[in-house]
Amino acid sequence: MERKRKKTGGSGSFLHWLPFYLMGLPGIIYLFINNYLPLAGLQIAFKNFNYGKGMWKSSWAGFKNFKFLFKTNDALIMIRNTLCYNVVWILLGMVVGVTAAILINEVLSKTAKKFYQTIILLPYLMSMVVIAYLAYAYLSPTSGLFTKIIENITGTAPAFYQESKWWPFILTFINQWRGIGFGMILYLSSILGIDPAYYEAARLDGASKWQQHKLITIPLLKPTIIMLFILNLGQIFRSDFGLFYQVPMNQGKLFSVTQTIDTYVYRALLQLNDVGMSSAASFIQSVVGFLFIVTANKIVSKLDENSALF
Amino acid sequence: MKKKLVSALLTAAMLGTMLAGCGGDDGSTGAGAAGNADGAGSSTADGSAGTEADSAGNAENGAEIDFDEEPYEVSIQFVGLFEENNNVANVEAALNEITLKKINCTVDIVPTFIGDLPTNTSMAVAGGEKLDIVTVGLTQKMDSMVPDGLLLELDDLLAERGPAVTAVTADVAEAQKINGVTYAVSGYPYAAMGSGFVYNKTMADQYGIELHDGMTMEELGEVGETLKEHGIYLTTFGNSYQLNYKFANTLDIFGDNAIYGGLLDPANSTVIENVYDSEELRTYWKSVKAWADAGYLPSDQLTDTVSTQEYFSQQKIFGTYTGYTVNQIAVWLSPDFETGIIQVDDGLICTGTAREFMLGIASNCERPDKAMDLINLIYEDPEVCNLLQYGVEGTDYAAVDGTENVITYDGTPNADHNSYYAGFVHYGDPLKQKVIAPLDDNYYDELVAFEESADRSLCFGYSFDASDYSAEAGAISSKLQEMLPELNAGMVADVDAAVDELVAALEDVGINDVIAANQEQLDAYLGK
User: Fold this and answer.
1) Under a CB-based contact definition with an 8 Å cutoff, are residues A175 and A182 in contact?
2) How far does A141 lie from chain B, in Å, by closest CA?
3) Considering only alpha carbons, which residue of chain A is nearest residue B302?
4) Which of A187, B36, B111, B130 could form a disulfide with B85, with the two C-beta atoms 3.0–4.6 Å apart?
């Protein structure tokens, strides 16, 4: 019997799972081509890259390509901006996304629910250039809607594009407005997977809506929240280039609150076109993101092993 | 088993990575040694020209052409505003009739959007795509293309197959070299460039405004006052972090927004200074601020995304500072109004201007000999250079009656530049090229006279090797983008304070170290 199982392929054998491997092969190939093959390119960050010689034959440069990132006092500003915006937005996005998902889930009419979902998701599909012009329509120094309203009320027109104090709020608003739809979909899909019997039982026990969400929805959303949190931490050293470059209209006066690692790399290398230096910046971003993911996952696994990603 | 499968896949993936090469070469292209001394020589020697019994001599270019071999197709970048070009096939056909007979090759014109030029070139070389003749200058500078290994050395090829090129570009030969090696040839060897002010002549006539060469900013300010009464802005500077044309062409700034310093009096001094700390620039910015305060400039310049060119063509501004050459006006022509230009500062010949429009051979070029044959033919044959520059007569342009070499786009399908239109490149000998109206047949004499009248920078031919200062250069560039636009637009509260702040910031990121290194290299260059 034992011999027969080995020959024909039991549930533990390679032959048994072969069809599934074959089904997964296209995905595996895609993953390797897009995610693993480019890893060899990490060496460009440490080389004097020469297109004629290619990646492998270019000479080594040590850490020379990394120097420009830390050459100015702006290094602290851009790292501060990148990290602080991301921390606030990850936390805020979590709260706003979960809240929106719960509220949408409470809408009874299917048509209304789809309508609201579409409306909320729409900004996510917009190009950042379009969003920049939308913002400009409200904030323009000569014809902006908000500028005019504030001018009529206070007698003074705020110079949004010349004063940095507004931009942490403007960028945060635009980021959340744009991202709320996508975050909401992820949380909503998890909420829809919660067994209605839990809510029924809670209602029979006299639980209010707030209690139902506090004691059922949020605890059952916890794995999704933690997973998205950890994955978002991987991007904590990166920023949305369009948001920080296009929306503030590339205004030098706003750099103290809009300069991030990505915008600095673009500005510093605009004229140099140095692929080694840009690779070095990306290398650091990836390493820091990787460390954040591993650390966060370790902490989560200590607190609740089942919620950890790996 | 699963582990074995995974390890097999990993091995295959890593092998694939290594074989993918990312631009690596093994000399299979015949140009593998680009960037070192062996490159061009070996490539040229590999060419079959001159070795076959049936080869025919080309009396004019001095090279042997093998007409028995299969014609090689030479691909040449054609930089413009679009990735497509409507009449390229007809231009290629017209060119091929000549090139097949003279150098036994065909021509493949590769339209390239100017914004994608550096990316397209580097990706083509890295990926081993077919690319023979590349545009050097514009948005991809020779200084960075050489260390990036994108260009082939040309000295041997020029000696063997490029007599026409050598003759036409003799005066700017030094600017075509880096460390004594030629990497590109000038597409516009009349390199004198001054600063000018281009303006709407129709508007000037309408409001009784008269402009003359050498106008100062104060005098232009008076024009601004007249225009203000009619609701027209004098000019706009936009959200620019570039040193304005008023200065960019009268100083020798080594082609890079003066991030390595510059020569304030290039015809008489070789002392490199921080241009941004000069009295001249302070005075200029104070004049710009006076214009802004007086309302001669749009108040929302810094956030307005409409370009100066668009403002000018829409007649919302009267004019703008621009580079000045004899044919510069052609860039600013409009079907809606007459254009005029005045020269506000003398011309200067420096390395940067000589390197603005160049042709080079890509380091992955399969047949550098054929590429050089075509380059030489472009300089030698007026028909070839005019076909490449202007396209086919009758379709892309029309001759102006009563002139010998003057053409116009008006009245042709190319009136709105939708057909074959080379807006960013120059091909061949300018004295063999046709000219666009309102330039006339006197253009050629004026061009030579302007070149002769221009000062020549004492460090002509020199370029700074900034490879050890790329970190500083990046930081300086970033600082300029942060602080220069407001000064350029005249929108600072106090010019002196803003300049002091800018200079302090630039010094903080090491501009003085860069300038010292630049001076050391220049002194060594001049001492040779």
Assistant:
1) no
2) 7
3) A251
4) B111
Q: What is the ipTM of this complex?
A: 0.80
Peptide bond into B438 cis (omega under 30): yes
Residue A164 to chain B, least CA–CA distance (Å): 13
Sheet holding B435-436, edge to edge: B398-399, B406-408, B435-436
Judged by CB atoms closer than 8 Å, whether chains meet at A72 and B470 is answered as: no
Query: Residue A271: which of B141, B308, B469 has the closest Cα?
Result: B141
Q: Please state the three-class secondary structure of B419-476 as a single string.
A: CCCCCCCCCCCCCCCCEECCCCCCHHHHHHHHHHHCEECCCCCCCCCCHHHHHHHHHH
Pairwise CB contact (< 8 Å): A142 & B470: no
CA torsion, ordered A199, A204, A210, A214, to nearest 10 deg: -50
Report yes or no: A106 and A199 within 8 Å, Cβ to Cβ: no
Task: Enumerate the β-bridge partners of residue B340.
Answer: B199
User: Which of A172-186, B33-47, B338-352 is least confident?
Assistant: B33-47
* Section A239-251 average pLDDT: 93
For the residues B47-59, what does the mean pLDDT come to? 41
**Of the candidate ranges A44-48, A155-159, A266-270, B70-74, the one whose mean pLDDT is the lowest:** A266-270
Nearest residue in A to B4, CA atom = A14
| Per-window interface: B 392-431 vs A, CB < 8 A | none
* pLDDT at A84 > cutoff 90: yes
Per-residue pLDDT tens over the stretch B218-242: 999 999 999 999 999 999 998 888 8
Which chain B residues have a beta carbon less than 8 Å from that of A64? Answer: 471
Which H or E run contains B292? Answer: helix B279-294
Q: Where are the alpha helices (DSSP H) in B162-278?
A: 163-168, 201-206, 217-229, 245-248
pLDDT at B490 over 70: yes
Length of chain A: 310
Task: Give Cβ neighbours of residue A238 (< 8 Å, ≥ 6 apart).
Answer: A82, A261, A262, A285, A289
Side-chain half-sphere exposure of A11, counting CA atoms within 13 A? 0
Give A-chain residues touching B254 at CB under 8 angstroms. Answer: none
Total Cβ atoms within 10 A of residue B122: 21
Which token pair is B278?
A: 């000069």
Q: What is the pLDDT of residue B32?
A: 33
Rounded-to-integer distance, Cα A166 and Cα A292, Å: 30
Strand partners, B455: B348
What does DSSP assign to residue B251? S
Q: How confident is the model at residue A306 (pLDDT cuts 50, 70, 90)?
A: confident
Q: What is the DSSP string of chain A?
A: -HHHHHHH--TTSHHHHHHHHHHHHHHHHHHIIIIIGGGGGGGGGGEE--TTTHHHHSEE-TTGGGGGGGSSTHHHHHHHHHHHHHHHHHHHHHHHHHHHHHHHHH---HHHHHHHHHHHHGGGGS-HHHHHHHHHHHH-TTT-HHHHHHHHHHSS---TTT-GGGHHHHHHHHHHHHHHHHHHHHHHHHHHTS-HHHHHHHHHTT--HHHHIIIIIHHHHHHHHHHHHHHHHTTTT---HHHHHTTTTT-GGGHHHH--HHHHHHHHHTTT--HHHHHHHHHHHHHHHHHHHHHHHHHHHHH-GGG---
H helix or E strand, kind and range, residue B185: strand B184-186
Residue of B nearest to A267 (CA): B478
Per-residue pLDDT tens for B492-528?
999 999 999 999 999 999 999 999 999 999 999 998 6
pLDDT of the residue at A10: 62
